[in-house]
Amino acid sequence: xxxxxxxxxxxxxxxxxxxxxxxxxxxxCNLRCFxxxxxxxxxxxxxxxxxxxxxxxxxxxxxxxxxxxxEPLLQRDVLSLMERLLDNGFTVLLETNGSESIQDxxxxxxxxxxxxxxxxxxxxxxxxxxxxxxxxxxxxxxxVIDREDYEWVRKFIKDYGLINELxxxxxxxxxxxxxxxxxxxxxxxxxxxxLPVRLNLQLHKYIYxxxxxxx
Length: 215
Fold this sequence. Notes:
The protein has 215 residues and is α/β, with parallel strands linked by helices. The protein is 22% helix and 22% strand.
């Protein structure tokens, strides 16, 4: 597998935000969102075996692992890697951009899946059949660019039944596009609409320099 970087940091996003985490960032992405903050992962990386990756992860002594990218599911060997990490007692998160099928992902993995909005320019690349494979502990993330984007997201989660009166199909995260939409504005809209979603800030960009790598 081609791996861009492996590092330990504080988990910056999702309901796991704030926890120590080992990140395995895979090389390659099939999308080109204008707000992407990991463009270096498009090409950079070195070939590593499954055993090498697992040994490197173990060396940090942290139980939480996130497989991210780029788009990790472009390399199908990632499926086996996640299974082995789980079998070794790790809690495994998979951050995926929503364009690749999650059907074959081990059910023990917590999936954090993007749904790209029309303003990202990538909505037509989404595999919406993924929605039927989501588990209650999985998470769907929307990066919101402006008010129009927010209104689109609100309609989407209603139309696709991600939230109903009885239960959550999955956890829903709304992230303000960093440097484009103020968190204060997105927070205000969520509160005004009593929308049962989680505001998802990129904590690592507030803890460290916004452009710093390996964090």
